[in-house]
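User: For my dataset I need records formatted as: sequence, then structure tokens, nothing else. Please produce one.
Assistant:
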Amino acid sequence: MAISPKSSLILLLILTILTSTASSFTAGIVSDLYSLQSHFPSGVIHLNDTLIHRIFSSGDRSFYLIIFFDAIPLRHKPESNLKSIKAEFDLIAKSFLINNHSSSLSKIFFCDIEFTESQKEFLRFGVQSLPNVRIVPPDANVSNSDSIPMEVGEYSTLAESMAEFIEFKTGITIGKIHHPPILSKTQLGFLITGFLIWMPFMTRKVLAGNTLFHNKRVWMFGTLFVYFFSVSGSMFILIRRIPLFIVDRKDPNKAIFFYKGNGMQFGFECISVGFLFTIVGLLLAFITRIIVKMKDSMVQRATMISALIVSFWAVREVVILNHWKTGYAVYAYLPSSWYT
């Protein structure tokens, strides 16, 4: 049966009204979210059940949601890193507002959800552990399968890593991460004022030669510290956050200080090697600076032999430890002419 021109016109008019209503409703959501950003200093919109229902019932969406799942009670636990990661997330959102213009700001919105306020949304997204950050693409439903989870670790460049992941998944440029200054303007002002007050007293002490930098014991201690810090691999321990020791899984009352194998080492191993090398370094300084000035030849020789024996023992312990860990033995080299 053919449709009359009048019916076709009415049907076209209804479809036009529905389409314009849906688009205006979606545009209303975008403008509301855009205005909500100004109410939060970092630009992270705080979501609740009502706002989430309105966002996901708006039909076709043209923007991404970057949602941080938060829980206030966990922030007070000293072992939780949730607060620091939330600060990095806020830094990304604030940097995005600074770097981009209005057309890009309507394509992505940074949000957070608090567990005690929206437990239902945590279950919908399948969030079972914190910290958790998810990217919700346009036209995605509120479910675990439609959102993109982001692996969040504990790194020095966490904000940069998260921003790169967001740019890769959304195709939207975040831009430069604007880290806050180490000192605020007030703190910097107090520091400069204190420095100016302290300068005259410090100048007087420098001219009189009565400072820590004029004390040779301070320089000797600093040299010894730098030497131990270098030979013990303490920088490696700090960067990799290596534990000094671990508790034996088979016997909780037993601690493991040395690990056999070159794939892993504990901080106690590095400290032991650094202590042995420091002994050798101190004995070398003792030989070159003190023993050579002894007037009694017998005492000088006895002290020299004792220092060499202790140095040989310290180096031998390091070689034994290296052989035990790696399986590679160290042999003394003898010229071939000695054998003939």
